[in-house]
Design goal:
By secondary structure, this protein is of the alpha/beta class. The protein has one domain: Metal-dependent hydrolases (TIM Barrel, Alpha-Beta Barrel), CATH 3.20.20. Helix content is 35%, strand content 16%. The protein is built from nine helices and eight strands. Strands 1, 2, 3, 4, 5, 6, 7 and 8 form an eight-stranded mixed sheet that branches. Helix 4 runs parallel beside helix 5 and helix 5 packs parallel to helix 7.
């Protein structure tokens, strides 16, 4: 089980089943060290997140039941310019970290028939924006992208690439997923970077469950030393958070 999990969705994402309090209580049961809430940006279909919700996240204590709590968001990349659906003021004043990805359920992106070149450019522009800390599930099922270019640019810009446990669980490690994971691991090794593992949990039973990853770690070349979740201080430094 992960001791740190920063990819958690609450009922505010619109398609998840649990509350902040339920996650915290479950994290205590699992003896976790740190969790982060990363509900979807407001352009996600059915999402309940708005600026008022994000603006009050800082009222949650930094430590609850001995667990460090971080406040984040999984923003949607909403156009080919790499724009995000979260205000700059919220990012700078209210959030500890920003995850970002293209989502098929995003109002702004889903009906755009962008090319592989345009999709790739959109992600790279988001990476270079200075607003993103983690690129969540950085290869896309519904949008063709040049994964090699994205992985390398993220490493150059000090953006964490995510090994997404939800993707591994849903796709049953099909050949394409395995190839993408291997490529991501190899790119991280090339640039001497660590990766972050996230559950992409939409309920407390998914949180921190890395059982699927353990079965394929050796095959994709991932070692424990490459997983930044195992190094809390380094992770906090990477996210520019004062502990």
């Amino acid at each position: 089980m992960l001791k740190i999990d920063l990819h958690l969705h609450t009922i505010y994402s619109g398609h998840a089943q649990c509350t902040i309090v339920e996650y915290i209580n479950r994290a205590k049961e699992l003896k976790m060290k740190m969790i982060g809430f990363s509900d979807h940006g407001q352009n996600m279909r059915g999402c309940l997140v708005n600026d008022m919700y994000l603006g009050t996240l800082d009222r949650i204590p930094e430590v609850v039941n001995g667990i460090r709590i971080l406040r984040g968001i999984e923003a949607n990349i909403i156009d080919k310019n790499g724009s995000l659906d979260v205000e700059d003021r919220i990012i700078s004043e209210k959030l500890d970290y920003v995850m970002a990805a293209i989502h098929s359920e995003s109002y702004e992106y889903k009906d755009k028939n962008y090319s592989k070149k345009e999709n790739t450019a959109a992600v790279i522009k988001a990476i270079k924006s200075g607003k993103v800390d983690i690129l969540s599930h950085p290869f896309y099922e519904f949008f063709p992208v040049d994964t090699g270019r994205i992985f390398e640019e993220a490493c150059r810009q000090e953006i964490l690439l995510e090994v997404n446990l939800g993707v591994i669980k849903r796709r049953k490690t099909d050949l394409k997923t395995m190839a993408n994971l291997k490529q991501m691991v190899q790119t991280a090794k090339k640039f001497n970077k660590k990766l972050i593992v996230g559950s992409d949990a939409h309920n407390i039973w998914d949180m921190a469950d890395d059982s699927g990853l353990k079965k394929i770690k050796n095959e994709i070349g991932l070692t424990d030393k490459m997983i930044i979740n195992n190094y809390p201080k380094e992770l906090m430094q990477q996210l520019r958070i004062k502990d």
